Amino acid sequence: MKPHIKNKLKDLKYNTHKVQLTTGRLKRIPNELKICTEVKYLDLFGNSIPEIPDWFFQFKRLEHLSLKNNTLKELPTIVFTLENIKYLNLADNQINLIDGHYFENLMNIEKVDISYNQITLIPEHFIEYPKCKDLSIKGNRLQVFPKAISDVYTLEKLDLSENKIASIEDDAFDCLENLIELDLSFNELKYLPTSIGKLKKLKRLNLSGNKISSLPKEFENLTSLEFLDFDSNPIGKVPIEISSQGASGIINYYLSLGDNVQLFEAKLLIVGQGNVGKTYLMNRLIHNSIPETNTTEGIDIKSWKVKTQSSPDFRVNVWDFGGQEIYHSTHQFFLTNRSLYLLVWEARTDQHLISFDYWLNVIRLLSNNSPIIIVLNKIDERIINIDERSLKAKFKNIVSFHQVSASSGQNIDLLTTKIQDEINSLPLIGDKLPKVWLEIRTILESLDSNYISAEEYLNICNQHGLSNQRALFLSQYFHDLGVFLHFQDDNLLRNILFLKPEWATNAVYKILDSKEVIARNGEFDPDMLDSILYEFQRDKHPYIVTLMKKFELCFEVEQSIFLIPELLKPEKLEFDWDYNDNLRFEYHYDFMPAGIMARFIVRTRKLIYDKTFWKNGVIIQRENTRALITTDQYSRKLFIWIHGNNASFLLEIIRKELNDIHQSLNYPDVPEKIPCNCPECINSMTPHLFNYVFVRRIGTENTFKTIPCEVSATGVNVHKLLGLYKIDNVEPENNPMYSLDKILNDLIEIGSRILERKFQKRIENLINDDIVDLLRTQGHNVADQTRSGISSNSKDAGELDIMIRMNNGIPVTIIECFRLESCGPKNTVVSGHLIKLLSKYDTHELQRKFIIVFGEAERFDNLWVSYSHYIRNLNSNDSYGNKYPISGFSVRDELHSFANMKVGISRHDNNGETVEVVHILLNMK
């Protein structure tokens, strides 16, 4: 018994309501507890208690009992005499048998956790009056779905993951109509019963890690489903464009799959300044010829069939973008994960590195780091040398440089070969699609029209056996793929399907480029459109204007009068503003994308005060509080000044709009700055600026009470400073992308790629960068939390803290990476990283976190054995502490088949809740 437990036992009284005797090395329940007849909460986690004494029956008021991580071999039946018990946790014990009668008694407790025991069977027993709402039998040895559970109609949450369940009776879910969450992941299921369609209230369903190859038709009855995970099943991965539609889209995809074909298709986007030969290059690649015209107005799209290793008929959709800066505002709506960029540069001009920096940043933001080939054109006229090494060091998605002449055809064959290799390596190539989907697409592409009505489209789908609902899922997939455009969430645009995206966007560009609109500082009306869009049918003009609104390019200032903020005058308007006692906030950009202020003005148009806005600024008002927001492209900063009684609330609105814009630009982590409020800075126009995220982290961890100001050299009270910025997080998103099981599977795949590259002897920084880049390739929103650690050689960053966030910025998980040569009992490196992962950087107490260890030992098998032993014995490790005591560690060999990779999951207790850490050990020797 540990000393702190002895002290707690001395303080016990008959009226003590809460007792926690955790990780105390207890081998029995102390007799001192007998006097606590009024106890309601009893936590005995992490001891070595084999049984419960007879005198336990006297705890008649006990509601919460945790015996997690002890040595119980039998179900403690005396618990069933406690009439008020509501929560029972027997996880991580050695229980191997549950009698049917006792299981019925268990189901009279509201929340039961018997996970990670050795239970092989739960006998069938009719349960007449159950009360259980939350039941976990995770991590046991069940081979069949327990029939007895089918009678527990009160269940709302059921976890049967990590068992060996191979079959489920067809009527198993008939009475479980109240289920909201169901986890059957990592079992041996090959099929699902038809009764699963009766779970009408089900919101979350995890089926990852099974052997399911098809779904019953009744799956489409799960109309309340918000989250569905099917990773690691023979049924195959869902295309990312489908998974973005949520659970209903995933279900529709699987139910439609049937006769299927593989999709070998990618997008090639040609960008660069105007008049550098982009159109010449496109035609030389596709037709081995050059066009008569030199300038592309808007977008030109061509289809190009090439031969790759994956397919002899690989389809490349080539998009030739105009060079005008304002077009960048619309690029984001036509990008997919199957994209390769050609950045074309002209050899005749001495363009500085700044020009490259601009375009490469535009591509980085709008493409989420798609690969880039830099093409130096017109080498038959002149050759300019560029610093390739510096560019590749800064922009790691540059894959190659090519010098060509589109006019003469010089070196075009080498460029073509490189394009073929790169598009074949893009993610998501070869996705399975229902054959009927491609048949419908072929029909639509053969139509001699720029658009069709939604009704015509539905008729075509109906003729091919698709219901209207499934047809709309399909059009959303086409939309996300960038093949056609169908904006279903807009009341007007939902009525039309744009078969040729370039037709719609080129109409938009004609308005943006109109001299008359530019002369009127971005203002236009329907009469002007008659002359600007004379080539476009008049009845389609409203669709084009609505499309501009959708792109956040314009808004209606008065009835039928529209304004394009990007075309406003850049000169600041005259207005009065008192800069004293303002709540201030700033964004500092490494690279400031075009159109941020224009889009912000469109988004906040209903809050604009007294028509006070110009190209680079706006004043908005809510109730009695006003905000001045301005941008400076030269310093790459956005400034916010707010005065009024509700300044912090208005700031929340502003940050939400700006963060949404940043997210759409794949730029979620723009540094946020707040001014110091020390006496010297508080009324200064140039105060010292703190990093807002850093200050908030200090305030949350409560490590320091003050933070130094670099202007006055005085300490600033952190909590008083943060008190000015009371901003709450928005609600979390339910998206399959944020599934922790998906992240686990993605990290295993990434680990295999790291192993493929280990013989390149790359320094650890670059391995860490690989992990970040590969996570982003998988579609994750990734941020580096720190790069401040030092590796074992004291030269390279040896620690990397990666955070995966939802699109709204809320954290999903943290990944910690470090090197390890050995792991003896006195090792402090591993415990140090675990402490950092569990507490220091996790202010949200995330459910599952990840550690990736680069193993550097001569004997990898010995390292894994010693590492596993070290983790299992953390509770006796003085350097680890007892804040997150370990309750169990399981090796997960079934997750992969690589000898040079090991995966284990440790479970840690956090005040009665379980936190998991996934350990991935890679053999880097």
Automatic annotation (TrEMBL):
EC no. given is 2.7.11.1
Source organism of this protein record:
Chryseobacterium taeanense
Which keywords does this Swiss-Prot/TrEMBL entry list?
ATP-binding, GTP-binding, Kinase, Leucine-rich repeat, Nucleotide-binding, Repeat, Serine/threonine-protein kinase, Transferase
Pfam families per UniProt: COR-A, COR-B, LRR_8, Roc
- What lineage does UniProt assign to this protein's organism? Bacteria, Pseudomonadati, Bacteroidota, Flavobacteriia, Flavobacteriales
Q: Which reaction does it catalyse?
A: L-seryl-[protein] + ATP = O-phospho-L-seryl-[protein] + ADP + H(+); L-threonyl-[protein] + ATP = O-phospho-L-threonyl-[protein] + ADP + H(+)
Q: Name one GO molecular function term.
A: GTP binding
Q: What class of enzyme is it?
A: transferase
Organism superkingdom:
Bacteria
| Assigned GO CC terms | cytoplasm
Give all residue intervals belonging to the Roc domain.
Answer: 259-426
Supply the InterPro entries for this chain: COR-A, COR-B, Leu-rich_rpt, Leu-rich_rpt_typical-subtyp, LRR_dom_sf, LRR_domain-containing, P-loop_NTPase, ROC
Record-given protein name? non-specific serine/threonine protein kinase
